[in-house]
Structure formats: C-alpha cells, structure tokens
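$ ./design --mode recover --in tokens.txt
reading tokens...
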C-alpha cells in the first residue's frame, strides 16, 4: 500500500540523541536536547510538582473528559501568569484562551486560526534562525513562511537594524512571530528599549504580533522580566496572540501543558473567537489531557506552592547562568581563540556558541560531545562534573 512513500529525513535534534545513546564513552555529553538537567545531569521533577501530584492523588480525582478548550481554572491562571491579573484584557473579559498540547499544540492551534481567519495576510515572518518546528507548523497550517533577520553571526548577537528593516519592508498587516524571551536557538533577546521600538514599528506597519513564550521564568529566573515584551505590547494596545508552554518552567515536558490566547477588542469578539477555537480543536484531538493542567492549577492557584515554585524556577535559571560563567571563564583561561562573551550574555536554555559544523563534528568524534550542527548547545546539559571537560574539548577543537 505504501510503496510510493519515500523515506523522510530524520529529525535533526532527535538524531543527536540517537548518536549520543550509541556512544559508549563514560565521558559522553548530550547538549542537543532541550530539557533541563540538574547538577548531576539528571532530569528534574520540581518539588512543587511532586506536592501537587500528592494533593491530586489524595483528592481521588476522576478521569472525566475536559471541555474542548480545557480546564477553566488552568487557563485563567495561565493567563494571569502571562498577562498579569490586572491587565486590561483580563479585567475587561476580552481574552479568548484555550488549553493546548504544550507550546507546540498552542502554535498549531494559533496558526490554524490565522490560516482560517487572519484577513490582511496569510504570510508569517519568522526570525532567522528560529525554532525549527515553527516552519513546518506554519506551512502545515496553510501559512506562507517568510523570514526577518535576527542573528548576526559576526557579533554573535542581535542584528537589530536588519530585524527592523525586514519588519518594515514586509507588506502592511503581515503576521510577525516574536520569541517573547530566551530566543531558541540563539539565546539572544532584544533589550527592553528595543522591544519598545519594535512595538512602535509593528503598530506603524499594522502587523499582527504573535508571541511564542516557551520559557517564562526559565529565562531570567523572574517571571515578570520574562513577560516584559508580552505585557508591554498589550499595554500599547496590540491585540496579540500568545502561545505558552509549561514544559520548561514547571518541568512538565511530557505532560504537554500549554495555552493559546487571543487578545480581543470586546467580550463579544472574545466569544466569537472562542467558538472558532473550539471548532479548530474538536476535529484535531477533541479535548486536552487533564493531569498536567491540574498540576499547574494546583501550583499557580495556591499561594504557598506558587511562592515555592518561583524559587524553583529561579534555581533552574540560576544554575544555567552559573554554567555560562564557568564555561566562559574556562574558555578564557585556556586561551581559546575567539570572543566568548556571548556565552555569558545569551539568555535561557540555549547558547549559540559560534562553533562551525566541522568543529561540532570533531567534538563528537574526538570527545563524545553531541550538539546540533548549527553549534547550539543546551546549557542545561552542563554541570560542575562536565563543564571543564567540555570547555577543554571546545578549546582543542577551535585550536584545530
Ligand atoms: N517554542 C519554542 C521557541 C520552543 O523552544 C519550544 C520548545 N523547544 C516550544 C515552542 C514548544 O515546546 P513544547 O511543545 O514542549 O511546549
């Protein structure tokens, strides 16, 4: 039956993990995967998540279906976390929101909605580079993909002028996707002043601002700071769309908890958008999974657990920031050719090291260190036990 099917290419990120698994070296390191690891290199279940799980177990909850757009207590709390309890769209009851299958599912619903209903344009502008999955999600949702400049290879920083020029030259009313914080894969974010400029520019061009926020709190350790761009745009009157994920900031990767929300101009518009969200979701997966959403509700809805969670998120962010400093210091101490300041200034889970594909290959062959070909490393894969070895191996690979 499937004789005419041609084998497709393997996923570039998951392929790195395959190679890592096959390697027998005791020193091997996997820096490909985008999941947090603790100081011993192990997956981390947050203590607040364990507590919430215990509460749910004791409450003997049933396993009934959720409504199409998910658990109401969860979506309310998720919206408050992102936008702020006192934000106008919440106070004025004009935010349409649906639970989603984590951030990816949020993007999928959002883009399907845009493909069906965004009137002025079906073209979405993505940064170069962007999270790889943005492109097929957009295409599969019927959007045309174009790009705006983002990363400057020479400075290993933001190409802000290029970014603005491309957003400016896009036809009025285009869709512009922005990483709210901790840009993946580069770890390079606009400053707050630059976000303010971007808000003006997007408004002037009547573009539609689409925020992907997969790392709130995880980027800087401060949930307010990480929500700056989202909240500023909303304050400025942009009717944004927002995708949220609780994979990173609550370590709920496999539970698949997220949300997609649309700032509308009135409760009436909200009701209409809400009805169409249901029409999109129902034939895709009917309704979302319940367990993860209950966990998030328990944590965000309980002041004590919420305060503990803030400390845990900050702990994860701080460990990563500490690894950035240690990696930078060691590379400099080893007199590694090149400029490495970006390792410290980049934000979030990932760092774009600037390593070339042949150096990446050398690291795999000679040192059993695995990362994606573009030189991106997951900082979370580093710890006190392997950061020296990693820095030494990078230093050798760069020196040639
Ligand atoms: N957007 C970005 C920018 C991401 O980095 C990720 C996670 N790698 C996601 C969305 C979605 O992840 P998830 O579906 O696991 O929430």
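writing sequence...
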């Amino acid at each position: 039956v499937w004789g005419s099917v041609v084998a497709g290419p393997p996923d570039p990120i998951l392929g790195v993990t395959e190679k890592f698994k096959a390697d027998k070296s005791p020193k091997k390191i996997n820096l490909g995967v985008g999941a947090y690891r603790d100081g011993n290199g192990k997956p981390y279940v947050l203590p607040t998540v364990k507590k919430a799980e215990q509460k749910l177990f004791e409450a003997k909850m049933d396993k009934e279906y959720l409504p199409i757009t998910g658990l109401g207590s969860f979506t309310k709390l998720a919206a408050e976390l992102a936008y702020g309890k006192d934000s106008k769209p919440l106070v004025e009851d004009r935010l349409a929101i649906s639970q989603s299958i984590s951030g990816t599912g949020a993007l999928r619903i959002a883009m399907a909605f845009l493909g069906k209903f965004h009137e002025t344009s079906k073209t979405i502008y993505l940064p170069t580079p962007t999270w790889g999955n943005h492109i097929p999600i957009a295409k599969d949702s019927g959007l045309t993909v174009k790009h705006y400049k983002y990363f400057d290879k020479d400075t290993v920083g933001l190409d802000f002028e290029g970014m603005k020029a491309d957003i400016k030259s896009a036809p009025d009313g285009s869709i512009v996707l922005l990483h709210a914080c901790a840009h993946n894969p580069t770890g390079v974010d606009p400053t707050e002043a630059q976000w303010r400029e971007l808000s003006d520019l997007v408004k002037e061009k009547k573009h539609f601002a689409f925020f992907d926020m997969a790392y709130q709190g995880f980027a800087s350790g401060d949930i307010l700071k990480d929500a700056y761009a989202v909240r500023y745009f909303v304050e400025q009157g942009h009717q944004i769309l927002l995708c949220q994920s609780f994979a990173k900031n609550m370590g709920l990767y496999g539970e698949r908890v997220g949300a997609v929300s649309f700032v509308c101009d009135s409760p009436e518009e909200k009701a209409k958008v809400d009805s169409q969200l249901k029409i999109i979701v129902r034939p895709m997966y009917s309704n979302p999974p319940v367990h993860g959403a209950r966990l998030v509700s328990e944590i965000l809805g309980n002041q004590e657990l919420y305060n503990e969670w803030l400390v845990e998120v900050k702990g994860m962010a701080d460990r990563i920031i500490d690894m950035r400093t240690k990696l930078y210091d060691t590379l400099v101490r080893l007199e590694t050719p090149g400029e490495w300041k970006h390792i410290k200034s980049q934000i979030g889970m990932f760092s774009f090291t600037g390593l070339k594909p042949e150096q990446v290959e050398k690291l795999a062959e000679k040192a059993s260190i695995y990362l994606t070909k573009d030189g991106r490393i997951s900082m979370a894969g580093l710890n006190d036990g392997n950061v020296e070895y990693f820095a030494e191996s990078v230093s050798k690979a760069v020196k040639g």
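exit 0
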